Amino acid sequence: MVTKKPFDHNYFIGYVSHVSPQCVKVHFPSSILLNKTIFSGEEFNGGLVGNFVTIEAENDGFIGKISEINLPEKERLALSEKSFQNSDFHPTATIEVLLSFDYFDGIAKHTLNAFPNIGAKVFVCPSGFIEEYVKNFGQKNDNKEVPYVDLGCLTSNLDTKVCVSQQALFNRHCAIVGTTGGGKSYTVARLIENMVANQSKAILLDPTGEYSVMEKGVQSVTIGKDSYFPYQKLTREDLFFLVKPSEGVQKPKLLEAIRSLKAVKIYQKMKSTSEKNGVRNLLKAFVNEDETLVIKEGNNIVEYERFSTKYFSDIESDNLELSIKNLGKQVINECISYPKNSKTFGSRNENDVNFCYGMVNRIYNLINTKVYDDAFNFRDKRLDNQNLTAIIDQFIKEDQQDNFVLRIGFESIGYEFQAREILANAIGRYLLKLAREKQFKENPLVFILDEAHQFLNKIVVDDFFQSTALSSFEQISKESRKDGLFLCLSTQMPRDIPTGTLSQMGTFIVHRLINYNDKEAIRQSCSSANSDILSYLPVLGEGEAILTGVDFSMPLSIKVSKPNVPPDSSTPMFKVQK
Length: 578
Description:
The chain has about 575 residues and is α+β, with helices and mostly antiparallel strands. It folds into three domains: about 120 residues, no CATH class; about 180 residues, P-loop containing nucleotide triphosphate hydrolases (Rossmann fold, 3-Layer(aba) Sandwich); about 140 residues, no CATH class. The strands form four sheets. An eleven-stranded mixed β-sheet has the order 11-10-22-21-20-12-19-16-13-15-14. Strand 7 and strand 8 form a beta hairpin. The longest helix is centred in the middle third of the chain and has 20 residues. The protein starts with 11 loop residues before the first strand and ends in an 18-residue tail after the last strand. The model has no long low-confidence stretch (mean pLDDT about 80). Keywords: ATP-binding, DNA-binding, Helicase, Hydrolase, Isomerase, Nucleotide-binding. It holds the Pfam family HerA_C. This is AAA+ ATPase domain-containing protein. GO terms for molecular function: ATP binding; DNA binding; helicase activity; hydrolase activity. It comes from Listeria kieliensis.
């Protein structure tokens, strides 16, 4: 597997002098060994903190990283400018052991029982050796043909490329985090370009439109401008988020109104066949003159229940296949009494009507609010070819090979009334539904959610201060991996991501983080994020990041390469007015 020799004498720098479960210490016979050298066309800097080394032990080889360099106390006392120029010192270094590998096949081992021995030789690690290990992280022995993602290079050696398996990067979900200006957007753009190059499908939810400049292999749609999410594909729970019914009277009446309007929809679609005509006649007495509403008052309960039983699965389905403009009127029609031992529905119940007027007004406001109509087409005025669910269905088809990334832009949707959060939750729920139907089993899909803190950990509060969480992304993170739907979150505030969601992320690309709570969120969610790694986060430069995760045997400090088409995320510059 590995072609570079890690234990060439020209790379030698010292011997192991101390071994502990956390680290090893190395004695350098001469400070000259730490000087910059060039061998076989490659530059080596043996004495820099952050450099990788290899250790030649008795039974296994080890890869480590220099975390600290010291001089012995007795040599420190003799320090002067002249002594630095003329004397030879004997420094020591602390090295964090990252992984062990087999001498014969080079395969990395994950064990706590392997340690270097005292006196083991330490060598500067050649770049090609690291590159090969990184490429094989997360790979299975039976899967040799895998796509790779070219992220960039190591910060400690710009000649060492970091190409990782796409499977290792996404198959346990991925999180890209960092403060504003740290390079998150460039990293997302870099991933998108690699997905296009690998002809792998991805859907990007773009809240600000900054990725609209990316065109090669990318299909772009903008909600509210040239597409909409059809309200018929919303669930009853989504409608509850929008309408906010109270538990006592409003929610039961709303549910009955939904069932009735679904029955009307079925009634309208029935053809005049002898078989269906008899069933259709069961509902005929309940439907008003223009066949838009159900009127139960004074009608036979048994006949309505027979019709409902016949089409139980359609009426009780979770979608909203109904005419929502009639929902408010139907809610009022549901406000009737139910007399005991009666075979017919009772008369209008004014108390229930009064309780429901507030919700009915919210329904009318919902339909007539522009931001909601732009998002969900409540007025049924937009074209069928702008239907986002149909666009998604077409995009994920195997024979669709023109574009490999679908960008869903939110830049035309306002921030009021939690419309963005509810819309994003609905899109996530729809993709989760497709995953449960095994749509991505053969051809996995990566769902990239930019500015994830805007959409996760969000709660909808109704007029009675009862709260409901938007949970589709948490469900995706917990259950969709086995069905081929992978989640990639990008956020500048990991502290605002629910712990249950962040803990499901198997891979982290962590750019500069300064806030204590943000760093703690990463530390608690990422098993390999130890204190040494976290100490680098506040000082990472633009584009620099820590790559770590379950399928990565060791964390890597990387410099992400600039994408070919950078996103439109630059900060406007002040100019001198002439």
